[in-house]
Amino acid sequence: MIPPEFDYAAPGTVSEALALLAEHGDEAKVLAGGQSLLPVLRMRLNAPGIVIDISRIEEIKGITESGDAVRIGAGATYQDVLDSALVSEHLGLLHKALTEVADAQIRHRGTVCGALVHADPAGDVGAPVLALDARMVIQGPDGERTVDASDFFVDLFETAVGEDELLTAVEIPKHTGWGAHYEKFVRVSHQWAIIGIAAAVRVEGGTIAEAKVGLTNMGSTPLRATSVEQALVGKEATEDAVAEACAQVGEGTDPPSDLNGQADYRKHVAGVLTRRAVVAAAGG
Amino acid sequence: MTEPMRGTSILGTEVRRVEDPDLLRGRGDFVGDVDLADPTVLHAAFVRSPVPHALVRGIGTGAASDAPGVVAVLTAAELGSDPVPPFAQINDRIGRTALATDRVRFVGEPVALVVATSRAAAVDAGDLVDVDYEELDAVIDLEEALGPDAPRQFPELGSNLALAVKDPEGEPDVLAGAHHVARLRMENNRMATSPIEGHGILVRPTPLAPASGEAGEVTGLDVTLGTQHPHLAKRLLVRWTGLPADDVRVRAPHVGGAFGGKAGIVPEHAAVVRASCRLGRPVRWVETRSESMLSMSSRGQVQYAELGVDQEGRITGMRARLVGDCGAYAGFGGSFASGSTRTMSEGAYRIPRLRYDAVSVLTNTAPTGAFRGAGRPEAAAMVERLVDHAARESGLTPEEFRRRNYVPADAFPHETKFGARYDTGDYAGTLEVALERAGVEGLRAEQRRRREQGASWQLGIGIASYVEVTGFGGSEYAGIRVARDGSLTVMAGTSAHGQGHATAFSMLVADQLGLPMERVTYVQSDTAQVRTGGGTGGARSLQLGGSAVLGAAVELRERATRVAADLLEVAEADIELVDGTFSVRGVPGAAVDWDDVARYAHDESDGLQVDHDFSQDGSTFPFGTHVSVVEVDVETGAVRLLRHVAVDDCGVVVNPLLVRGQQQGGCVQGISQALWEEFRYDEWGNPVTASFADYTLPSTGDLVQLETTSTTTPTDRNPLGAKGIGEAATVGSTPAVQNAVVDAVAHLGVRHVDIPCTPERVLTAIREAQRGEHHPWREPPAVFDDLPDLDAVDDVEV
Known about the structure:
A: Uridine Diphospho-n-acetylenolpyruvylglucosamine Reductase, domain 2; Enolase-like, domain 1; B: Aldehyde Oxidoreductase, domain 4; Aldehyde Oxidoreductase, domain 4; 5-stranded mixed β-sheet
């Protein structure tokens, strides 16, 4: 439980951080809230030469309005996001998902962008961010670029962020007035999701006009259930009406088999929970 | 024996724990905190086997020895291949050395010890120790380990059997003539003991080695140890080191929980002691959570149990065949299937005919030890699940079936086939209180409503009535020393590690002498100060240690009264002691207070002190009934705990606050065994729940407000009338929850779900029942057809 020796740097600006990344390459690990990195270091699963702590960089802190979107800086903790009135008003799905992240201590330390870059498929942030069509703001030696969430998650613990780059913010289009629900399936409350269903729906006159559904831990990356989304459009926002559209959500997914459930079990439960999440999101 | 002064007595009241102000302010010392700033203390770190079963072909220590700060890298070659004197060993051919010699038998087994000037240096150098393992096949599954071709960790034994008991009086067919036989195969899951603090030891040898030069011969040891049994630990370390008993001191500072995991000493302690002796320098080892998860395990049984009942639902006979998991080697945990589980296999019931066979088997997993109940929760889980199953098959409610079969309240003392002498009990009494408190009739109406609706979340109500064995007879020591200023030092040979003995035992003394508790200082867990002691385990402390303290206080009161009589120049019989004042009956104003007596005793004689040994004839048998209420999602198998009602009877209660704490903590661990926790290995022997990220220990957010209450049926085996409560609620809660889960889905045809009742298991059972493929019974392994006689229970050394 003692990490191997490493160097430590706490740059004050993004450009300083990028310079350090350029200098150290794959020897470097970025520390934001440390809720994933520190256990990895302490269990000696990784031994970076240098840890670059970006938690003191002022320019990437904060949650701001950015046109039709809400911009969440890389310095924002889960709790900062939960406390943000902008998020509560415009990003109900993200707000609901973050209430389910681990425990209060972790929510006050861990960051949303840190979790996105860590890209653990059992984490609770990826599915809502993907479902809400977020844009990831990445800075590197050649300046800033934006990647759609649908292109961001590459594989298990792997994203579009390069070795010499930093995810500095995530911009999420406002979904004002959408109903939302995050259904997290766990055995004990602080656990990683066995599976999770992120659902947001826009209901017009009792009928689902638009639906967005993201899946946690149903594959090596967060997934978008597009066929379910399409099938839901035009359905009445009732349990019976949406059940059929949701039942096959597991089709084509490749969830893990582990202590908490075999892949087939996860696929079955995903169908049940998607129905419940959609109904809850629609206000049922 | 003088009665405690009831009426004005503080006994039976909720006195706050005197331990807490220090603990809550972070002022309590644990092994890892003692002498933290002492730069002469060296730090030890173990190199542990990453493989479950292998021959050790060589250990390269060169690079580690050359690493910065390293003082020594030690292996069995240096620390010895003689077996460590064990807390318990069930087969004398299966000893365990401090460090592995030629073979490793589980992931986490210590292979080398690095001693360095800092903990970080020791851990870093550990990574440089190069062990050459020749891997062997491992066996993990209990029943596979019984197979003729199973890999053997002790080839010379010829099998993986460490222990077997067969029932010599067993009738050939104890189930013959039954109207119906209820049968279940049940698994009792392996648990990680998980105290907040892991193991820890700080060893100070004398004389110390000179600053430069070789260590001389060590002649004495001062050991600070996180243990439940300081005096036993001392005896074991005296045997291990060969040092004179007078020159070895063992003391336990605050201990952050143990739950059975810190019984006596473990091989790691022995390794650190030898290292310290060899170096002539103080050495500390504090276990990490990762290490603790790899080494501290308990439970682990497969139970084949059958219950015969007649047409009225009365039990006619029971047959049980059990396989218990020793893990690697053959320590305390290996004794349960043949020992305490067998002792308690009749539960709270009259069982006219019983046959019980058991084997304990070696697997390439962590050695099992004690965990809160140590074999008795396993017995209650078996009996209560089986009784519930039989009730359902008999068409009776679970409470009615139990009422018809309890040992009745007027039948005590009651002796079981295997020699348990139940002292007192009123099993039906706790049942009725529990049913009433839970409102079972109303719950059943709600259950019917949900069933009729076809609701996703079905309601389950589970009952368990348990009886458990505590104290285990023997004796305990207590002493009281009165200082010249009248203050008292009370000591006992028990060793609290969270239980609150300082509070309860000080209450007993203060009550007997009519003095405020603030005048009492409590001393424990130090072999240099406390003459002897049996430590704390098996829920023995209040009944044995408390009775010893009470006996000492009564004796002190008598002596002090004699001193007061001498001082007042009256007959002893004319003195009465009220609120710390000795007065002469019928003579107003003729009085001396406690301080006068203390001063006089010191001035005129050799002071005031008593030593008292209390012996208890046999065990005591607390009991109770728990009712658990759960919801089960029939679409996903998820289980949600709604309520848990615990009615526990531990006889006379000294401090209800402490008892309630034990009930609540016990319930949480028992509920957790039923729903959440299981320590698991993959089929190759790699632990897959080795951190709290995977081992699903609950937190507050997972529990409900526990509804605990007590009834009081005193025992006649000690003057307090007290029975043990430390483990009782753990024993009672697990089967209540499990029965509730089965009850919730019984209308779908489910008859059994093994613990922990994970969502996937519950859903699987529902689906199997729907397909007509739910079979909660199969024939036990062939080993029981011709059980060898390996009855070594008498050899268990504790």
